[in-house]
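RECORD TYPE: inverse folding
INPUT: structure tokens
STRUCTURE:
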């Protein structure tokens, strides 16, 4: 089972530039949850989520960082979107191509994540994310293939301080750097911008591993990807069958191979937002995953096991096998950072333990993370 990206021998740094709303999949889910909570019977739903964290209707989530966090102290004042990049004469398209090229593996696969200002602050999510690659089992070299996409200026500046491949992506008429409320027009635009962006990447011929930034990487996922399957996505809950459409996909981690099928699928997915106004990409994905048109395109969707691609909803039980762990099923940025940091500690403990004793190392998470609302 190998989707065989190999590491390029040499790698030059890249200049710059796409961003993510803070919580990626998480934020999307919370927004959905919030709407539900507001609209539907609160107590039942809260109870439901507490007992069924991988629920289908309401998936757990992260708070929208910009809705709750102050701009970091020390962050540059916001002075307009992508000042640095606007001064470059290159078009966004040319910049995109250049950054992807400089980060790509030999088989034209890139690793992509998206970032916003709250998550980019020193000591916040992005630092834990990058640290995991450094302490993981032979994962450091994967940083050479990681492109951090910023949708706001502060995130882009921080990226350029700490990483070689940074890309800023703007959305016409929307300033993503400020505070955003759930389910506002700007918020949804930003979520969908990511889908449109990923389609662009595929059209350029680059396959990608998309990862939310609140996922720590301990081993290369590449050997655990299926040899078959153009669109492979992680799950909040894995049924045990990679082909079972009843799996609950989590858009925070996916491997997508560049081909005509996946380009058409991303087009279809993006276009489907118009038929489902007010919904997030992940909710729409859940609706269209069984659409006859997807089968007609010839797209094979496969679901990744939580054994290798775990999360707080359903942790991998085997530290000898785990590749990634996602801080899903977690509301609140600070709690998220706390539990992600604990995962790094657990991993260090695992790596420092020898032989058979390793079998007894287990996660100390979730600890702070939960689905309960926080008063941040
Ligand atoms: C844990 O993963 C390792 C490496 O893949 C494997 O050899 C071992 O059998 C697994 N243990 C369990 C209990 O599944
Ligand atoms: C996380 O849990 C620890 C121990 O229970 C506690 O000391 C800490 O304040 C918690 N952090 C947050 C953000 O709730």
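DESIGNED SEQUENCE:
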């Amino acid at each position: 089972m190998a989707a065989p990206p190999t590491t390029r021998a040499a790698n030059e740094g890249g200049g710059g530039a796409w961003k993510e709303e803070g919580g990626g999949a998480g934020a999307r889910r919370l927004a959905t949850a919030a709407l539900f909570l507001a609209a539907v019977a609160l107590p039942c739903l809260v109870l439901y989520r507490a007992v069924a964290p991988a629920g289908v209707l309401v998936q757990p989530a992260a708070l929208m960082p910009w809705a709750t966090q102050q701009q970091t102290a020390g962050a540059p004042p916001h002075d307009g979107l992508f000042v640095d990049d606007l001064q470059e004469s290159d078009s966004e398209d040319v910049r995109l191509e250049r950054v992807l090229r400089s980060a790509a593996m030999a088989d034209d696969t890139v690793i992509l994540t998206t970032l916003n200002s709250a998550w980019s602050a020193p000591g916040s999510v992005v630092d834990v994310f990058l640290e995991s690659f450094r302490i993981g089992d032979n994962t450091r070299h994967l940083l050479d293939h990681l492109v951090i996409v910023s949708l706001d200026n502060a995130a882009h500046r921080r990226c350029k301080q700490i990483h070689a491949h940074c890309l800023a992506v703007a959305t016409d008429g929307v300033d993503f750097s400020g505070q955003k409320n759930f389910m506002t027009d700007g918020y949804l635009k930003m979520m969908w911008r990511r889908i449109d962006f990923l389609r662009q990447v595929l059209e350029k011929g680059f396959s990608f591993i998309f990862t939310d930034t609140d996922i720590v990487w301990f081993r290369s996922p590449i050997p655990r990807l299926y040899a078959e399957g153009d669109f492979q996505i992680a799950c909040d809950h894995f049924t045990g069958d990679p082909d079972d459409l009843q799996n609950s996909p989590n858009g925070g981690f996916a491997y997508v191979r560049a081909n005509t099928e996946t380009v058409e699928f991303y087009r279809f997915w993006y276009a489907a937002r118009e038929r489902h106004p007010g919904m997030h990409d992940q909710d729409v994905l859940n609706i269209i995953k069984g659409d006859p048109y997807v089968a007609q395109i010839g797209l094979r969707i496969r679901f990744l096991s939580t054994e290798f691609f775990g999360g707080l909803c359903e942790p991998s039980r085997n530290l000898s096998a785990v590749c990634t762990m996602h801080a899903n099923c977690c509301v609140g940025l600070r709690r998220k950072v706390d539990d992600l940091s604990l995962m790094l500690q657990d991993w260090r403990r695992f790596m420092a333990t020898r032989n058979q004793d390793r079998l007894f190392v287990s996660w100390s998470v979730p600890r702070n993370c939960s689905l309960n609302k926080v008063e941040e």
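NOTES: The chain has 13 helices and ten strands.
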